[in-house]
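P.,

For your records, the input lines for the assembly:
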Amino acid sequence: MARLEFARPVFTSHGEFTSRGSVILALEDLEGRCGYGEAAPWPGFGTESEAQALAALEDVAELLAGADVEPGECPVVAASRLGNAPAARAALEGALWDLAARRAGRSLAAHLVESCVAPLARRDGVADRAALGEVPVSALLIERSPDALRREAASVRAAGYRAAKMKLGGGSLDEDCARARAAREGLGEGFRLRGDANGAWTESDARQALQSLAEFGFEYLEQPVAPGDEMALARLRRLGLVRIAADESVATGRDARRLVESGAVDVLVLKPAMLGGPARALEIANLARRSGCDVVFSHAFESAVGARHALHCAAAWADPVACHGLCTAGLFVNDIAEPVACRKGVAVVASSPGLGITL
Ligand SMILES: [Mg+2]
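Structure tokens returned:
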């Protein structure tokens, strides 16, 4: 169990956070290779608590000690014990996949392509794609005042990014419009600007916001209303003003299925750490593709271990145009390994075996 200190406090609708808890799972095989996974519950995603994740993993570790386990495959008995603990399950699945990739002598991304992505694509008659060595990422605009935001946006563009995201819904709609205008001015026409309201609006507020914000050319707007009402998302999408993305609404595979099957959203934001691990996240991504829904991978403030799992998922998904939310460099003052760094709008995926880090 680690406690990671944020370099700057993180504000969400659940309050202000100066640190976060994280449980790291290391699975070692007989040859001394180690695979790593992380359970990092985060408020608002409906997972188990940190203490529950730790207890669940201690329980499973006892069960697996000395057992004959096929790397990459989650033993049924362990999976059944983690049914109500998706964060712990992400740690176990992640560690098993990391170990499998290390044993195969290839990067986790390459291993996931071979084991998860390519079989699903072939079944759907989609051409195989190799894992990406560089994953396009979006920058996060954090400045509050329009003037500072305009300067920040211009520097993001100059730094080589092709997409940027700004938070919305923290103040009045007039403030949001002034900030969106400034961001657009700094980024220039055609640059992919995304908004994220983190569920701050009621449906009628959201409708008004979409009408006012449409002129700024958002690529999509994430989670305009709180999770739990996919019909509201569907109605907002049908306005045809701005494309709609779901993030907090995608807490489980079942949620994702409901969202894509009901046509409620244009984009799914997938966090492997919340969805039970890389294989499950990629399965959901495939489901989204079949319904014509775009996919963006992101972390939920995990350490270098969880963030790298999300990075390798995005690399394995290998959508050449999607920009993902993956950077964690500078997020913590005491990360447990090298965080995911982004330069010139991309995150480089190490070609060394597994996650490409050692603890
Ligand atoms: Mg979001």
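Two observations worth noting. The two ends are 14 Å apart (CA to CA). The chain has two domains: 2-105, 116-348.

Regards
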